[in-house]
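A quick word before the example. In earlier lectures we treated sequence and structure as two separate objects. From today on, think of them as two lines of the same record. Here is AAA+ ATPase domain-containing protein written that way.
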Amino acid sequence: MSDQGISEAQMRGFRSAVESLKLYRRADLHDPDQGSPLIEELYVDPLPHEDVFRTAIRPHTTFVIGRKGTGKSTIFQRLQHELRKGGSSTSAYLDIKTIFESSQPDQALISRLESRKDALPQEAIEKLALYREFLKATVTQVQEELKRRIKSSIWERIKESFTQTYAELFDELDSLLDSASEDNFVSVLGILETQLKDTAASGGSFEKELGISGSFSATPKIAVSATEKSARTTSDERVSVYGDVLIRAFNIREFLDRLKNLLSKIGVRHLYILVDDFSELPEEAMRVVVDALIAPLNNWSDEFVKFKIAAYPGRIYYGAIDKTKIDEIHLDLYSLFGTSDVSTMEANAAAFTRRLVESRLEYFTKHDSSIFFDTKNEEVWRVLFYASMANPRTLGYVLHFAYQNQLIHGKKIGVQSIQDASLKYYEEKIASYFSVGRFLHEAFSERCSIFSLKELLETLVVRSKELRTHKSAVFEKISGRPPTSHFHVVPSFDGLLSTLELNFFLTKYFEMSDRDGKKVSVYALNYGLCQRYTISFGRPSGEREFRLYFVERVFDYSSIVSAFIAKNQEIVCSNCGEKHGLDKLEALKLFGMKCPTCQVGVCEVVNLSKKYESVLMNVQSELLLPKTELGILQALHTEGDAQRPAYIAAELDCSYQLVGKRAVRLEDRGLVTRSKDDANNRFIQITDIAESTYFTGDHSGELDVGSDP
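And the structure line, produced from the sequence above:
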């Protein structure tokens, strides 16, 4: 037992509580000893009266929107747990990111199809394979959920209420899965070729009427670039044909009717399809999933199918889904708690943070928080909120590092130890976004875009550091160093800052009116980043005027962001390469971004990184890796020793199967080794080659913001 009286059992309980907060995606909350589900006991709703959960369980299609770690998958678990207790609804959980990865057709199938006359292009085949995997996964998950229920005592009586036995129902579902076999899949492609020829013919005349010379064949192509609107229309028509033919060929509508009729006899009125990791899909795949699957299934099912879709803010495609007929649940700070003034928002968010910690500690340790925290100082809970921004997974990591720094040394967790833990979390988990970004296997323009955001972040941090010694009337009323962690911009800049926010460098804190009465968005720099660069966090108290501290004119960074855009963005025609000034952007938008110079190409806004261009140019192309592979190397580098795929998956917020597949590729390149222990558990370890290539002497994760005096 430590000097503070914390027993070994209590320490183990604290570790379990922290691990339960760090859980990713579908990692179930369960009792470590008995294996029983704990989701109902441990679920803490952010809002009073469990309003988030009550909204999620309504029989409406719902988008659950939040950054990583905000609890989207936890809400799904709570939802499924509740559905299993009743008989009016059932569910199917789909990891859409894994489905997308597994849908890539093998080369044998591609070769067979390429040998056919007028075969579809590989891109179209990949889309159809995605449809097939989505439907197969849906049917399989419905089967698993029904089996899980029927085996329970509550559902035993249901066996007698079928006009056919439940086994026959599963036979029909198996039959539907069989219809997605490879041979039948090839047949669907054959049907599709004919359909696309018809569509191509009408599409050609449509383009001709526009006065743009173009031609289509069985493999549709536009001979010259058209306007964005016409090109998008052609794409939408093709997606529509894919969806119509696929759903007709696999009898999905017939399946829905049959399943609905069977389940209605036992009182099941709704099938909830839970789609996780939606925003992890590439943009084109996201469009395909919505246009060809989610929207038609949602609209055709006569209220039977309801989708629950987990997505990131700013990375959602709705397509034909009627937004007026769906629910949206926002889990990030301002959207969740910012219904009143900023003080109330902070109080509610800090209270949620405290409830979350105390509920986990009470279950896993059987003691209150005073055993582990310096609760005599109420500041602990406010600082925990600052460090986590009420994000459960971030909270878990901060407490994990605080445990390592304090509890195992017999010391309680206080304000300073939380600040130290947030710094370590920032350095190990957040800052690496830039250090690995230069090796990302994307177009040079995409990597430039990442590093242009680094330049923007550096500009913001430099200004926040400068304000520490700024002279103004409001600062004169503050004793000591003034807090300069927050800033505000006009809302039109929210989109530009969204990627920095999605990667936790910033958090949208509130929306307010500035001193001139104009609406502005208030942002907070990452708390650990502020510890790293000695920036005081928050706002002062004591004076009435401090209520508007965040919208003081010195914190208006709109001009800073505008200057950055002018320097690092340009508008370029994709056809003739002509560059246009940013002052022409609004005029170009009125004409669908059509290039006024060549009258053919579509103009695009390109992000530049002039400061880091040479760094990116010096990266050899053979060193570039996809995002997942880079994430695996980063996780192994951070830990320093061999890790199991499940641990790496938790760090990357993906499935362990995906980690396993990508580790094979990395091993082929000599970047990791794969081995098994005596219990046949797989382990992955980074090689010296990978360490020296990707991490030795690398300082690209550091911000170039000058040194402190």
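Notice the following. The mean pLDDT is 80. We will return to this example when we discuss secondary structure assignment.
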